[in-house]
Amino acid sequence: MEINGIVVSPDPRLRQECAPIQAITPEVIALAERMKEEMFENGGCGLAAPQVGELIQLVIIDTEYDSRATYDPIVLVNPVIVEQSDTLVPFSEGCLSIPGISCEIERPDRVVVEAYDLDANLMRYEAEGDLFCVCLQHEIDHLHGITMFERLAPAQRMRAMHDYQEARSRGAQPGDTN
Question: Which residues are annotated as a binding site?
Fold first, then answer.
């Protein structure tokens, strides 16, 4: 199921492993542009290709914009976490594909990610203790069929799923959090 161009839970596409991108084609570039528009229109800070129904390893992130003028997402093709700290910290996360709720998720407080840009240049991103750090991990999870529900302990997961069903029954849209 999709709302405002965003695939929402429990759509099975959100639980599938995504294929690596073999070549940066005009179709991949067009998808990245479409994702940029969908993310902005829905008020997100990160978006993975399965969230728009495409099961490939493509992510866009912009955690710092406050208007269309400052919106300039980075594009990550085949991103991989190559280093992460052992220190886990809690962070309240929302997800365009799970509208209406946020969940406290523990994740490493430092990551190093390698990915290609749309010019096929290998890029390296380091993030520590901020929204960008969390967003990198959250979006890469999507490429492996992992939503924030799977990052919760069983009792927390049941509560979050209940809260999500209530939010959806109230008409929650992508970009809505509690």
Answer: 95, 138, 142
